[in-house]
Amino acid sequence: MSRVLVLNGPNLGRLGSREPEVYGSTTLDDLAALCRDTGHRLGLTVEVRQTDDEAELIRWVHEAADERLPVVLNPAAFTHYSYGLRDALAQRTAPLVEVHISNPATREEFRHTSVVAGVATGTIAGFGMMSYVLALQAVAELLAESP
């Protein structure tokens, strides 16, 4: 089974209580279980992590690059301004799928720009927690296609 990191940025540890009208009532623990269950069905071992610390997130991205691990990433607010994260992601050695629970294009203007998108394999946004399921399906397909 291929190992996949599902990495979540700032404030996503507050899922379930943070702006439920935008992010729903699913908690981070619920999301982690959904990702692990989806991964199991797809033949993937999924490890879910969350941090509010940009440096820690960058260390995890370096780990993924060094170990050639695919990443599903919700960079949260770091999406819009973290050039350090973007530069770390540019070193990726396996598929990278950027994911967002809401659709940033329908929200405040500052959310319309992603500095991450340009180095990602693809982006999935606006499907709630299903965005993660779709991202894991994409990773499984990409891994199946690679030599």
TrEMBL record:
NCBIfam families: aroQ, PRK05395.1-2, PRK05395.1-3, PRK05395.1-4. Homododecamer. It comes from Actinomadura verrucosospora. One of its GO terms (biological process) is chorismate biosynthetic process. It catalyses: 3-dehydroquinate = 3-dehydroshikimate + H2O. The chain crosses the membrane at residues 115-140. The record marks R18 as: Transition state stabilizer. It holds the Pfam family DHquinase_II. The lineage of its organism: Bacteria, Bacillati, Actinomycetota, Actinomycetes, Streptosporangiales. Catalyzes a trans-dehydration via an enolate intermediate. Pathway: Metabolic intermediate biosynthesis; chorismate biosynthesis; chorismate from D-erythrose 4-phosphate and phosphoenolpyruvate: step 3/7. This is 3-dehydroquinate dehydratase. Keywords: Amino-acid biosynthesis, Aromatic amino acid biosynthesis, Lyase, Membrane, Transmembrane, Transmembrane helix. Coiled coil: none annotated. One of its GO terms (molecular function) is 3-dehydroquinate dehydratase activity. Belongs to the type-II 3-dehydroquinase family. The active site is at Y23, H100. Substrate binds at N74, H80, D87, I101, S102, R111. Its EC number is 4.2.1.10. It is an enzyme of class 4 (lyase).
